[in-house]
Design brief:
D-amino Acid Aminotransferase, Chain A, domain 2; 6-stranded antiparallel beta sheet; 8 helices; binds pyridoxal-5'-phosphate; D-alanine aminotransferase; pyridoxal phosphate
Length: 283
């Protein structure tokens, strides 16, 4: 199995990176996870554009030109590793290696690596729904950047698992933000609602695709913040992510409890997303 190591294809066992990489000391790096369906990457351009934006926001020197070659390298990696089924590509761009110092210098060479992994679509979860755990969002105020510094997210995920939930739904005070590795949507009186893509959430690629599909369906959409009380009164709720696509929520746990039905709007959007993905499979 090969990995992409600073632009070069390399055996996984031979690839080792610097002790002094800043992603290790400071979580000083950004990443992307791209779905692969039957060997074809889904929404690769959008992911690479978001990687570019994350790098720009963190002042990591990474150019559009490198992005173009990364696109070709990612496709090459998928082919080389024979990822002909479903899986994903993980890409990480770190600021690079330098002696440990909070202050970064701009001449450091960024370091990029990528690997592939097989992973099936979680069809059972998509059909049966999941229980989620409501918890306070303790993350920093630039959640719009996809950085590898994910401590708030991993603590929230563990909390959720400790309450037999598959995902944590985070809120800042009363205002709902997003999952630990997913975006959140609710449906109320036929209207699809999701929090705005401001600094408090990651603007998910799946979120953007779902909003696009909803608009094309003529579904009324409201992109405004909502409260935990509104969340618990929703008719339907689901989360979105690259890995899990659309996953319905069937139960709330945490400070508030309750059950919720998997509704027709969720199912309709699942069907539309599936159709969009199936077009990717055929190349
Ligand atoms: N929000 C967070 C915090 C995430 O980590 C992720 C994905 O991992 C998402 C949202 C969903 O984003 P996407 O649909 O681009 O995978």
């Amino acid at each position: 199995e090969k990995v992409l190591f600073n632009g070069k294809m390399m055996d996984r066992e031979k690839a080792s990176f610097s002790f002094d990489d800043r992603s290790m000391y400071f979580g000083d790096g950004v990443y992307e996870v791209i779905r692969v369906y039957s060997g074809h990457p889904y929404q690769l351009e959008m992911h690479l554009q978001r990687l570019q934006r994350s790098a720009d926001e963190l002042d990591i020197p990474y150019s559009i030109k490198e992005q173009q070659s990364l696109k070709e390298r990612v496709i090459e990696l998928i082919d080389t590793n024979g990822l002909t089924h479903d899986g994903y590509v993980y890409v990480q761009l770190s600021r690079g290696a330098a002696a440990r110092d909070h202050l970064y210098e701009r001449h450091i060479e960024p370091f990029i690596f990528a690997f592939t992994k097989e992973m099936e679509i979680p069809l059972d979860q998509q059909e049966q729904g999941i229980a989620v755990y409501l918890t306070e969002d303790i993350r920093w105020l630039r959640c719009d950047i996809k950085t590898v510094n994910l401590l708030g997210n991993v603590l929230a995920k563990r909390q959720a698992a400790d309450h037999d939930c598959s995902e944590a739904i985070q809120h800042r005070g009363d205002t709902v933000t997003e999952g630990s590795s997913s975006n959140l949507f609710i449906v109320k009186d036929g209207q699809l609602m999701t929090p705005p893509a401001d600094n408090l959430i990651l603007n998910g690629i799946t979120r953007q695709v779902v909003l696009d599909l909803a608009e094309r369906q003529g579904l009324p959409v409201s992109i405004t913040p909502f409260t935990t009380a509104e969340l618990l009164e929703a008719d339907e709720a689901f989360i979105t992510s690259t890995i899990n696509e659309i996953t319905p929520i069937k139960e709330w746990r945490g400070t508030k409890h309750g059950r919720i039905k998997i509704g027709s709007v969720t199912k309709q959007l699942q069907t539309k997303l599936r159709a969009d993905i199936e077009r990717t499979r055929t190349g």
